[in-house]
Amino acid sequence: MKNQMLKKILFLGSLLLGVFAHAQSVSGTVSDSNGPLPGASIMVKGTSNGTTSDFNGKYILEDVAPDAVLEISYVGYGTKEINVNGEKVINVILIEQSDVLDQVVVIGYGTKKKSLVTGAISSLDSKEIENSSSPRVEQVLQGRVSGVTVVSSSGSPGSGAKVRIRGAGSNGNSDPLYIVDGMKVSSMDNIAPSDIANIEVLKDAASSAIYGTEGANGVVIITTKQGKIGEQIISFSSSLGSQSVNTKMELMDASQFVTYMNEAGEATVVDNGINTNWIDETFNNSFVQRYDVSFSGATEKTSYYLSGSYLDQDGTVGEDNNYKRYTTRLNVKSDVKEWLEIGANITYTNIANSPISEDDSYRSPINSMLLIDPLTPVIYSGTLPSRAADGVANGTAMIDNNGNVYGYPTYSTGEVINPVASSNYIYRGGIDTDKILLSVFAKFKLTEGLNFTSRLGYERSNTIDSRWTPIYYVSSEEQNSQVTLNDNLSRNSRWLWENFVDYTKQVGDHNFSALLGYSAEKIKNPYYSLQGGEVAQESEEFTYFDFTNRDNDKIGGSIYQKNMNSVYGRLSYDFAGKYMFEGSLRYDTSSVFPTSNKGGYFPAVSAGWVLSKEDFWNEDSAIDYFKFRASWGQNGSDANLAGNGDIQVFRTVDGTVPVVYEGVTGVTPGDLANPSLTWERSEQTDIGVDLRAFNGRFNFGADWYNKTTKDLIIPDGNIIAPPSLGQTVGAINGGTIKNTGLEFEAGWNDTTDGGLSYGVNFNFSTLDNEVTDVIVPSPLQGATAPSNGDGVTRFEEGYPVWYFYGYKTDGIDPATGAPIYVETDGNAGITANDKTFIGSPHPDLIYGGNISLGYKNFDFNLMFQGVAGNEIIAAYHQPSRPFTNKPVNWFTDRWTQAGDNASMPGAANAIDAYQSDLVVEDGSYMRIKQLQLGYTFADELIEKISLKRLRVYVSMDNYFTFTKFSGLDPEAGSFSDNSIGVDRGFYPIPREIMFGLSLDF
């Protein structure tokens, strides 16, 4: 008996010794694609043996059996199980779960769990933003959010973009409302993307109705970074790169131009041995650099974030086209008492910009580049022609820094000028802007669930636009006989004081939250213009008004003012996160409307139903979460009012002419005030679904929307004024626009057993835009251009907003080579009444997406973006200037003799094509916005130099574009709201190759 017991003890002891002999310690690092994850949980599956990663993501776990399975988890990331298989070092890369339903999103005046959102809201977090090389927030949104169209206004340095959420909802300003840390802002050029923690885009009326009169075009909410609890972190990032223009556009060369002009009957045009490729000569490679540094940290009571950013971007046109931005930010938040939290967000920005003229059908370097004849040299070599010699003698020649004389157009006339000379010689001076954005708040925690917040915001910018033009002479239309000064001074200021109380209460499965608030706001933007000339000396030192001839000095000025008071409220309810309801109401009063219509109500309701929480839902379903939601609401807009429209004003000048009668100075009435003017009101219905499947690896969202904007504000009311009135009329209400569409967002994110993390995310949207009502029977004329005296865009019932206007053609007449205009008015013969719809600038389809990969220390990201179904119209052609160059297809595809079946007219009939659909092209494109490859150095290497993280990368941005468009750039935007898609010589978006690094101390 004793021997048997001893044998059992020895057997059990040998088993235990075997286990302990083979047990081991396992160490490694837990990280994501951007670096270490502190506080991650590492557990031996089925046991209580576990640990957490330290601040650098490192862990050591003792007593791990060789055949154990490790469970690694982190909040917001997918849990990973890994077989030990005897390994002693196991590094783990977790992938963030984009479908985490407890993720908090920012909404108007608060936050909400994503699982409880009943409106259409899209989000971007800092990790998506950090990989973008774009210096502007608007460009960061491009291709990343469904239902959002972003069209760059220009490719010039520092230029912004036109952002349209669910289409153009107005005949004028359709920009969304931008909110930064709770403060309304007038522009986004002072926000460094590196400071952004997350961006929310409120797309439907229910989400944005809480902002009432300013939410009709959607809302973009930006939250900047705060310090996080843990060690203090110093972060630095830098990117350096080269920019260049890559375009498929070709112009006629010298031989083709001579042939074409001769065929047009211009026999004086002969080959002079010069063959200038003006596209190559006008565009140049340029440099861009950006530096960002931040200091952040937090204790249990206080957090701080201090940052600085510097951007220096040269243009690809001209030697001095440049944009510099200096930004400093301080964010502080502290729980000074258990019942009181205070905070402040302060930003100061200085912007220095040296621009050139652009988006101009008459005078801009790029416009001249497209029109000037190729027989003109960039600079003269050898003996100067008499025209240039005379210019040198009388001081009107344009000369470069090396003393070379810029070439005068050999044949081109009028405003057409040497584009290299224009960009390097004419534009002097620049624009300097100082901006400050301040937001301070105090949050009082009155009792459990009940808080009161008071927030004061202040925005101010001071801009000095000081430019001067030297003496030069090219033609009677393109000259400057004396040094002229033009200074424009503007000061924009806004203060916003908001007070709101929020309350949350849970009773069993019933969850309630309520918000009630009041806000007051004032905007005051004075503007001053000064003009002067005849400066004694042509140099920078004398470009001040103390040196001008006082007889030529002119001054002017105006002011925009608005006061607004608002009361708003919101009530939210959900039952066990299964059934959700939300309603909001806002009442705004605005000083820009007449007394009888100063106030307006803006209601909204929304509801949601999580079907996957119902008992009938199959627990084994591949779909983990399914929510149905619907919303309806109304928003307003006063963005198209110049202000003071309810006041009858009197002026001492009529335009620029003083009001004088028989030697006595008097006054004349300004625009007649409109006592019936009311808000633009947008009404929108949205139905959507959200689902997650395959254990959170797949996410999908879809929305259908119907948005109608009524009572559009038309700033120029003279369209309804009879001549007998004898007085100009101010703004009127006069139209309706309807936008409908579908939006889809889908993504798959996972990590393989081999450690490869990957994500594929895609979004696309459809858009149908139509004007359904106009106050007058005749259409409104929009953008003007020399190619079409009736305007190239129009606002008319039954068509898209600001559609392209001109003649439809039915081919080229084989007998004459002239375009065959299509009769559309039902009357015999072709007249101006036969002009009609020939294209739309609005895309039918908007899409974007990205593919991300991560393996060990490498990461890769590909992002693309595109549109389809829109057109672009060439508005740079000038009928009054016969000696102008043209795209090469006007030569290769032209009619030359009777019987030709050609797609472009003969040279003698080219002018007839300028106001027809022959200058309209398909603007569809797909652009690879970014190809980026990064490498994060191993901790073992960087710890030796006291770094926590070091990543380097190379990025190719906007490098590849796939399009049928033959112009400079299919992303043809404009600074004007009625000129989107009107190509007057668009400054192309440059492609960039960037080298960068980011590191944390």
Would you write up a description of this structure?
The chain has 1001 residues and is mainly beta. The radius of gyration is 32 Å and the shape is globular. The protein has a 22-stranded antiparallel barrel. Strands 11-16-17-14-15 form a five-stranded mixed sheet. Strands 1, 2, 5 and 8 form a four-stranded mixed sheet that branches. 8% of the residues lie in helices and 47% in strands. The model is unreliable at 5-21 (pLDDT under 50).
What distinguishing features does this structure have?
1001 residues, mainly beta, 22-stranded antiparallel beta barrel, 5-stranded mixed β-sheet, 11 helices
| Largest β sheet strand count, sense and barrel closure | 22 strands, antiparallel, barrel
Give the DSSP E fraction (strand runs of 2 or more residues): over 45%
Instruction: Tell me the structural class.
Output: mainly beta
Number of E strands: 59
Radius of gyration, in Å, reads 32 Å
Low-confidence stretches: 5-21
Helix content: under 10%
The oligomeric state of the chains shown is single chain
User: Shape, please?
Assistant: globular
Give the termini distance in whole angstroms.
68 Å
Q: What is the number of helical segments per DSSP (H or I, 4+ residues)?
A: 11
Report the average pLDDT across residues.
88
Topology readout:
Elements: H1 2-22, E1 24-32, E2 35-36, E3 41-44, E4 50-52, E5 58-64, E6 69-73, E7 80-83, E8 92-93, E9 104-107, E10 110-113, E11 121-125, H2 126-130, H3 137-141, E12 148-152, E13 161-165, E14 177-180, E15 183-185, E16 196-202, H4 205-208, E17 219-224, E18 230-244, H5 254-263, H6 278-282, E19 286-298, E20 302-314, E21 322-337, E22 340-354, H7 365-371, H8 386-394, H9 419-426, E23 428-447, E24 450-469, E25 472-473, E26 479-480, E27 484-507, E28 510-533, E29 554-575, E30 579-590, E31 599-610, E32 623-637, E33 650-651, E34 653-654, E35 657-658, E36 660-661, E37 664-665, E38 668-669, E39 680-693, E40 698-710, E41 713-714, E42 732-733, E43 735-751, E44 756-766, E45 768-774, E46 780-781, E47 793-795, E48 803-806, E49 809-812, E50 819-821, E51 836-839, E52 845-855, E53 858-868, E54 871-874, H10 889-892, E55 920-922, E56 925-936, H11 939-942, E57 949-963, E58 982-983, E59 991-1000
Parallel strand pairs: 1-8, 14-17, 54-58
Antiparallel strand pairs: 1-2, 1-5, 3-4, 3-6, 6-7, 9-10, 11-16, 12-13, 14-15, 16-17, 18-19, 18-59, 19-20, 20-21, 21-22, 22-23, 23-24, 24-27, 25-26, 27-28, 28-29, 29-30, 30-31, 31-32, 32-39, 33-38, 34-35, 36-37, 39-40, 40-43, 41-42, 43-44, 43-45, 44-52, 46-47, 47-48, 48-51, 49-50, 52-53, 53-56, ...
